[in-house]
Amino acid sequence: MWIAIFVTAVIVLVLIRLLVVFQDQLKFIINGQDEGFKFNEIMLLWKLAKKTEMEVPAQLYYSVPALNKAIALFIQDSKKNGTSEDSATQDFLTKLYNYRTKIDIAHDNKRGLESTKFLDKGQRLRIILHNKGVFTSEILNNGHEIVVAVPLQKGLMKLDGKEWVGNDISVYLWRKGDAGYVFDTRVTNAGVFNGRKVIYLAQSSQLERAQKRRSVRSECKINGQLYFIDVENIDFTSVEVESGYKCLIEDISEDGAMIRIGGKGQSNIQIKIQFELDGKMIVMFGIIRAVEYNAQLNQSRLHFECVHIDKEMKNAVLNFVYKIIPEDKKEILEALAQTEADEMEDKEKSGNSAENAETKTATPSEPVAEKPAEISSDTVALPEDDIDVNDLAEMEVSDDL
After folding, report:
1. 8 and 123 share one domain
2. Could you report the per-residue pLDDT of 163-202, keeping only the tens digit for each?
3. pLDDT digit string (tens) for 379-390?
4. CB–CB of 376/158 below 8 Å?
5. Count of domains in the chain?
6. How far apart are CA 239 and CA 222, in angstroms?
7. Sign of CA dihedral 74, 79, 84, 88
8. Are 218 and 320 in contact (CB under 8 A)?
9. What gap in Å lies between CA 246 and CA 40, rounded to an integer?
10. pTM to 2 decimals?
11. Sign of the C-alpha dihedral, residues 43, 49, 51, 56?
């Protein structure tokens, strides 16, 4: 009896050991059967995966590049063996191509990228390491982990691979034909891959579509002058010498501002504002897109969209804004800007003129001379006297405004 128990225990231990050793192959076989492949075909796919040195053989079931590599190797081997014209070879090749089409279509039908395991070799990456800035890298291999070249900053290797290990990073990328993405991950290791220094990134299924780069608005208190545009031909070079309506600029960016005025403002009015910034005169032309009116204070906040500003003045605004914003926000903006540059480069190479045209159409245009703004004193209700900006700057703002 004890002998039988001992033998049973040994058999169970051996089976457990076999399951541990061959668990990847067993999963591969089960996945292959689920995808409709025969056992002998699955074993051939396993050999191809091993021959192409895939860290995760199961990539063949979801990665088009991995499958392409396996198909190329299968064709190469069949030609060497003289079996390329055999019906069995052609049947299997047909099944591989059909399966490739299936997963290709499945990827296209998905709403965006669901996991970093679908990222292809050669994918350009923009990496933010907190307090160190933005770095550039590319994927060299994608398996159990993502293998990327040691990131460079302005073309130089500022940090060695080992200095990256253990750090949490944010990765920005433009996926060709899809969209921009961002995900957070951790650097797990460093080493050498195909003769290149690399770092290893943990896979992630928490990807978000990267928002288009937005101008950064910086809070401020700048006294300015507001003028209505009520002429057909707008002179963008003119600087007003007469006083306009006094206003307070509460935040500023190169493409707009939040403007505080006394009285009730009106949306869809063309205006220009003048103010000094670090001793330089700034003139911005644009449109009031929205108004927040506080009846109790008899004040309005004007959401101003700038549609024209001189290049030098725009740079002066950017210089002012970037001196104030936090460093981590600067890094995000830089990464987004570089990712957008990758997108534009990709579209130029693809000759995607239709998409470029759409992008241009969506860009706010300058005020149209044929449709001058109509100003109604009954509805705008701006004060007859100038606003006392000093008092306005000190006023409390209620939650309603």
Report:
1. no
2. 999 999 999 998 876 778 899 999 999 999 999 999 999 9
3. 334 444 444 544
4. no
5. 3
6. 18
7. negative
8. yes
9. 82
10. 0.47
11. negative
